Amino acid sequence: MSRAFTKEDAQQDDVVVVARAPLPDGAANLVTTRGYALLRSEESAITDELAAASSSGDERRSAALDAAADELALRLSSAEVREPAENDKQSVRFGDVVTLRAVGAAGSATFSLQIVGVDEADPEEDRISHLAPLARALLGAKVGERVAQGATGAAGARREVEIVAIG
Question: Could you list the residue range(s) of the whole structural domain that residue 121 is in?
Fold first, then answer.
C-alpha cells in the first residue's frame, strides 16, 4: 500500500500558513519603523520554527515554512521604511495617527487611526493600510478638512469625516 494512504498520515495535523496580504502591482511596500521591526521579529520566529520542523523531520511543515520565509524575504527586500515622527504634521502622511470626527453623525465623538503598511494593518488596533480607501482619501489632507469615502449614488453609503488632529 502506498504511504500516501496510511493511517499514520491521516493523523498528522494540517499545516496552515496564512497568506500575506498582497500588494497591488506598482504599489510601494511602505512600512513604519515599528512595522519593519515586526517583520524582522516574524522572520526570526519563522527561522526558529523551520529549524524545529527540520530537526523533527516534519517535511510538510518545513515546506510550508520555507514558502512563508520566501514570501517574507521578498516583502522585506522591497520594504520602504518611513519614520512617522519625521512627518511635519501639516497634512496627513504615511505613519501618522489621525483623529477624525464623523460629519453629520449624532454627537461629536472622535476616533483615531494610524495609516500603516499592509503587513502592519490591524483594524482592531486602529491601524489601517495606506492602500485602504479611507487612508487614500486622508493622505495629503489637513486639519479641518473633510474627506468623503464610500460609494456615490442613490444606494451608495457615502461617509464624510473631518480631520480633527494629526499626530
Answer: 85-166
